[in-house]
Amino acid sequence: MNKITLLTWVLGLVLLNGCIVPKKVVYVKDMMPDTAYMAMEALPLRLQKNDRIQIVVSASAPELAAPFNGGVGSYKVQDDGSVSTVVDRTNGGYMIDYNGNIDFPILGTLHVEGLTVDEVKDLVRSSLIAKEYITNPTVKVELLNLKVTMMGAVGNQVLQVPEGQITLLDAIARSGGLDVVADPQAVLVIREENGIRKKYVNDIESKSIFDSPTYYLQQNDIVYVEPRTAVMTPREQINRQYISFGIGMLSLAISMFALFK
User: Fold this and answer.
1) pTM here?
2) Domains of the chain, with CATH numbers?
3) Local structure of residue 31 (DSSP, 8 states)
Protein backbone atom coordinates (compact mmCIF):
# COMPACT_ATOMS: atom_id res chain seq x y z
CA MET A 1 0.00 0.00 0.00
CA ASN A 2 2.87 2.36 0.81
CA LYS A 3 4.34 1.77 -2.65
CA ILE A 4 1.04 2.58 -4.37
CA THR A 5 0.63 5.75 -2.29
CA LEU A 6 4.19 6.83 -3.07
CA LEU A 7 3.67 6.24 -6.79
CA THR A 8 0.45 8.27 -6.75
CA TRP A 9 2.19 11.20 -5.06
CA VAL A 10 5.05 11.09 -7.54
CA LEU A 11 2.71 11.10 -10.54
CA GLY A 12 0.77 14.00 -9.03
CA LEU A 13 3.91 16.05 -8.53
CA VAL A 14 4.99 15.42 -12.11
CA LEU A 15 1.67 16.65 -13.47
CA LEU A 16 1.65 19.75 -11.27
CA ASN A 17 5.30 20.62 -11.82
CA GLY A 18 5.69 23.95 -13.61
CA CYS A 19 1.96 24.74 -13.53
CA ILE A 20 0.88 28.32 -12.80
CA VAL A 21 -2.35 28.76 -10.88
CA PRO A 22 -3.82 32.16 -11.83
CA LYS A 23 -5.40 34.35 -9.22
CA LYS A 24 -9.08 34.97 -9.74
CA VAL A 25 -9.87 38.56 -10.74
CA VAL A 26 -13.26 39.94 -9.72
CA TYR A 27 -14.07 43.32 -11.18
CA VAL A 28 -15.49 45.94 -8.74
CA LYS A 29 -15.93 43.23 -6.12
CA ASP A 30 -16.69 45.77 -3.37
CA MET A 31 -19.91 46.96 -5.06
CA MET A 32 -23.01 45.88 -3.15
CA PRO A 33 -26.00 44.48 -5.05
CA ASP A 34 -29.18 46.57 -5.21
CA THR A 35 -27.23 49.64 -4.08
CA ALA A 36 -27.32 52.93 -6.00
CA TYR A 37 -24.02 54.64 -6.77
CA MET A 38 -23.55 58.08 -8.27
CA ALA A 39 -22.41 57.93 -11.89
CA MET A 40 -19.67 60.30 -13.02
CA GLU A 41 -20.52 62.34 -16.09
CA ALA A 42 -18.20 61.92 -19.06
CA LEU A 43 -16.32 65.14 -19.78
CA PRO A 44 -16.15 66.20 -23.44
CA LEU A 45 -12.85 65.55 -25.19
CA ARG A 46 -10.55 68.51 -25.75
CA LEU A 47 -8.83 68.65 -29.11
CA GLN A 48 -5.05 68.26 -29.15
CA LYS A 49 -2.21 68.85 -31.58
CA ASN A 50 -2.10 66.23 -34.37
CA ASP A 51 -5.79 65.41 -33.95
CA ARG A 52 -7.76 65.10 -37.17
CA ILE A 53 -11.25 66.52 -37.37
CA GLN A 54 -13.84 66.50 -40.13
CA ILE A 55 -15.99 69.59 -40.62
CA VAL A 56 -19.03 69.53 -42.89
CA VAL A 57 -21.06 72.65 -43.58
CA SER A 58 -24.64 72.44 -44.86
CA ALA A 59 -27.18 75.07 -45.83
CA SER A 60 -30.69 75.34 -47.27
CA ALA A 61 -28.97 76.32 -50.51
CA PRO A 62 -26.18 73.68 -50.78
CA GLU A 63 -24.28 75.69 -53.38
CA LEU A 64 -23.55 78.27 -50.64
CA ALA A 65 -21.96 75.61 -48.44
CA ALA A 66 -19.94 74.03 -51.25
CA PRO A 67 -16.86 76.32 -50.96
CA PHE A 68 -16.50 75.41 -47.26
CA ASN A 69 -16.47 71.67 -47.86
CA GLY A 70 -13.38 71.42 -50.00
CA GLY A 71 -12.07 67.87 -49.98
CA VAL A 72 -14.76 66.36 -47.75
CA GLY A 73 -16.80 64.84 -50.55
CA SER A 74 -18.79 65.75 -53.62
CA TYR A 75 -22.10 67.32 -54.60
CA LYS A 76 -24.93 65.63 -56.41
CA VAL A 77 -27.64 67.33 -58.43
CA GLN A 78 -31.02 65.73 -57.78
CA ASP A 79 -33.76 65.25 -60.37
CA ASP A 80 -35.60 68.31 -59.07
CA GLY A 81 -32.49 70.47 -59.57
CA SER A 82 -31.51 70.66 -55.89
CA VAL A 83 -27.91 70.07 -54.78
CA SER A 84 -27.02 67.69 -51.95
CA THR A 85 -23.71 67.02 -50.18
CA VAL A 86 -22.16 63.54 -50.42
CA VAL A 87 -19.64 63.17 -47.58
CA ASP A 88 -16.52 61.07 -48.13
CA ARG A 89 -15.89 59.23 -44.83
CA THR A 90 -12.40 58.20 -45.94
CA ASN A 91 -11.23 61.81 -46.23
CA GLY A 92 -8.36 62.76 -43.95
CA GLY A 93 -10.09 65.86 -42.58
CA TYR A 94 -8.16 68.74 -41.03
CA MET A 95 -5.06 68.07 -38.95
CA ILE A 96 -4.45 70.37 -35.99
CA ASP A 97 -0.94 71.73 -36.42
CA TYR A 98 1.82 72.43 -33.88
CA ASN A 99 0.28 75.81 -33.08
CA GLY A 100 -3.16 74.31 -32.47
CA ASN A 101 -4.64 75.65 -35.71
CA ILE A 102 -6.38 74.34 -38.81
CA ASP A 103 -6.62 75.97 -42.23
CA PHE A 104 -10.30 76.13 -43.12
CA PRO A 105 -11.52 77.12 -46.60
CA ILE A 106 -12.27 80.86 -46.95
CA LEU A 107 -12.38 81.42 -43.18
CA GLY A 108 -8.63 80.89 -43.01
CA THR A 109 -6.75 79.94 -39.83
CA LEU A 110 -8.88 78.78 -36.90
CA HIS A 111 -7.40 78.05 -33.47
CA VAL A 112 -9.12 74.87 -32.21
CA GLU A 113 -6.67 73.29 -29.77
CA GLY A 114 -8.27 72.89 -26.35
CA LEU A 115 -11.79 73.24 -27.73
CA THR A 116 -14.45 70.54 -27.68
CA VAL A 117 -16.12 69.29 -30.85
CA ASP A 118 -19.23 71.33 -30.00
CA GLU A 119 -17.15 74.47 -29.41
CA VAL A 120 -15.50 74.06 -32.83
CA LYS A 121 -18.95 73.68 -34.36
CA ASP A 122 -20.09 76.93 -32.71
CA LEU A 123 -16.88 78.69 -33.80
CA VAL A 124 -17.33 77.77 -37.47
CA ARG A 125 -21.04 78.52 -37.44
CA SER A 126 -20.68 81.92 -35.79
CA SER A 127 -17.86 82.87 -38.21
CA LEU A 128 -19.99 81.99 -41.24
CA ILE A 129 -22.87 84.08 -39.92
CA ALA A 130 -20.72 87.04 -38.79
CA LYS A 131 -19.08 87.31 -42.22
CA GLU A 132 -22.48 86.91 -43.91
CA TYR A 133 -21.43 83.90 -45.96
CA ILE A 134 -24.41 81.77 -44.85
CA THR A 135 -27.43 83.00 -42.90
CA ASN A 136 -28.34 79.81 -41.06
CA PRO A 137 -25.66 77.14 -41.58
CA THR A 138 -25.59 73.66 -40.11
CA VAL A 139 -22.13 72.53 -39.05
CA LYS A 140 -21.09 68.99 -38.14
CA VAL A 141 -17.70 68.30 -36.53
CA GLU A 142 -16.25 64.85 -35.87
CA LEU A 143 -12.98 63.63 -34.33
CA LEU A 144 -11.49 61.11 -36.76
CA ASN A 145 -8.47 59.65 -34.99
CA LEU A 146 -9.56 58.74 -31.46
CA LYS A 147 -7.28 55.85 -30.50
CA VAL A 148 -6.05 54.19 -27.31
CA THR A 149 -2.84 52.13 -26.97
CA MET A 150 -3.06 48.94 -24.88
CA MET A 151 0.16 47.46 -23.45
CA GLY A 152 1.41 45.01 -20.85
CA ALA A 153 -0.59 42.12 -19.41
CA VAL A 154 -3.66 42.92 -21.47
CA GLY A 155 -2.47 42.43 -25.02
CA ASN A 156 -0.53 44.86 -27.20
CA GLN A 157 -2.72 46.67 -29.69
CA VAL A 158 -4.06 50.05 -30.71
CA LEU A 159 -7.83 50.44 -30.36
CA GLN A 160 -9.60 52.69 -32.84
CA VAL A 161 -12.71 54.31 -31.37
CA PRO A 162 -14.95 55.57 -34.19
CA GLU A 163 -17.89 56.13 -31.82
CA GLY A 164 -15.95 58.88 -30.04
CA GLN A 165 -16.00 57.56 -26.46
CA ILE A 166 -14.62 54.57 -24.58
CA THR A 167 -14.15 53.66 -20.91
CA LEU A 168 -11.19 51.92 -19.34
CA LEU A 169 -13.23 48.75 -18.73
CA ASP A 170 -14.47 48.81 -22.34
CA ALA A 171 -10.88 49.05 -23.59
CA ILE A 172 -9.77 46.09 -21.45
CA ALA A 173 -12.71 44.02 -22.69
CA ARG A 174 -11.99 44.85 -26.34
CA SER A 175 -8.39 43.76 -25.82
CA GLY A 176 -9.52 40.31 -24.67
CA GLY A 177 -9.41 40.91 -20.91
CA LEU A 178 -6.50 40.67 -18.49
CA ASP A 179 -3.77 38.04 -18.83
CA VAL A 180 -3.36 35.45 -16.08
CA VAL A 181 -0.31 37.31 -14.75
CA ALA A 182 -1.99 40.73 -14.73
CA ASP A 183 -2.21 42.81 -11.57
CA PRO A 184 -5.77 44.23 -11.46
CA GLN A 185 -4.66 46.77 -8.85
CA ALA A 186 -2.00 48.22 -11.14
CA VAL A 187 -3.84 49.30 -14.29
CA LEU A 188 -1.95 52.40 -15.39
CA VAL A 189 -3.15 55.14 -17.71
CA ILE A 190 -0.52 57.51 -19.11
CA ARG A 191 -2.10 60.72 -20.36
CA GLU A 192 -0.66 63.88 -21.89
CA GLU A 193 -2.33 67.10 -20.71
CA ASN A 194 -1.14 70.55 -21.69
CA GLY A 195 2.23 69.21 -22.77
CA ILE A 196 2.76 67.25 -19.52
CA ARG A 197 2.50 63.47 -19.18
CA LYS A 198 0.83 62.07 -16.07
CA LYS A 199 0.51 58.51 -14.80
CA TYR A 200 -2.68 57.39 -13.09
CA VAL A 201 -2.95 54.09 -11.19
CA ASN A 202 -6.32 52.30 -11.16
CA ASP A 203 -7.67 49.31 -9.24
CA ILE A 204 -10.35 47.64 -11.33
CA GLU A 205 -11.29 45.34 -8.45
CA SER A 206 -12.60 48.38 -6.57
CA LYS A 207 -15.66 50.52 -7.27
CA SER A 208 -13.33 53.52 -7.03
CA ILE A 209 -12.53 52.87 -10.69
CA PHE A 210 -15.74 54.68 -11.61
CA ASP A 211 -14.46 57.84 -9.88
CA SER A 212 -11.08 57.78 -11.60
CA PRO A 213 -10.25 60.72 -13.88
CA THR A 214 -9.14 58.12 -16.42
CA TYR A 215 -12.29 55.97 -16.32
CA TYR A 216 -13.32 57.73 -19.52
CA LEU A 217 -10.30 57.46 -21.79
CA GLN A 218 -9.12 60.26 -24.05
CA GLN A 219 -7.40 60.28 -27.41
CA ASN A 220 -3.81 59.03 -27.36
CA ASP A 221 -4.09 57.56 -23.83
CA ILE A 222 -1.73 54.67 -23.09
CA VAL A 223 -3.10 51.85 -20.92
CA TYR A 224 -0.43 49.65 -19.34
CA VAL A 225 -1.34 46.72 -17.08
CA GLU A 226 1.50 45.63 -14.82
CA PRO A 227 2.17 41.89 -14.33
CA ARG A 228 2.29 40.45 -10.81
CA THR A 229 5.63 38.86 -11.60
CA ALA A 230 8.27 39.41 -14.24
CA VAL A 231 7.02 38.30 -17.64
CA MET A 232 9.25 35.72 -19.32
CA THR A 233 10.26 35.94 -22.94
CA PRO A 234 9.10 33.14 -25.30
CA ARG A 235 12.58 31.56 -25.16
CA GLU A 236 12.54 31.63 -21.35
CA GLN A 237 9.10 30.02 -21.33
CA ILE A 238 10.31 27.19 -23.60
CA ASN A 239 13.42 26.66 -21.47
CA ARG A 240 11.31 26.55 -18.33
CA GLN A 241 9.04 23.94 -19.88
CA TYR A 242 12.02 21.77 -20.84
CA ILE A 243 13.55 22.10 -17.38
CA SER A 244 10.24 21.31 -15.67
CA PHE A 245 9.72 18.29 -17.89
CA GLY A 246 13.28 17.06 -17.28
CA ILE A 247 12.97 17.45 -13.50
CA GLY A 248 9.66 15.65 -13.56
CA MET A 249 10.97 12.73 -15.58
CA LEU A 250 14.09 12.48 -13.41
CA SER A 251 11.97 12.45 -10.24
CA LEU A 252 9.75 9.78 -11.73
CA ALA A 253 12.73 7.63 -12.77
CA ILE A 254 14.36 7.87 -9.31
CA SER A 255 11.08 7.07 -7.59
CA MET A 256 10.37 4.09 -9.85
CA PHE A 257 13.89 2.79 -9.30
CA ALA A 258 13.55 3.10 -5.52
CA LEU A 259 10.10 1.55 -5.63
CA PHE A 260 10.86 -1.57 -7.63
CA LYS A 261 14.52 -2.33 -6.88
Assistant:
1) 0.69
2) 52-143 (3.30.1950.10), 147-227 (3.10.560.10)
3) P
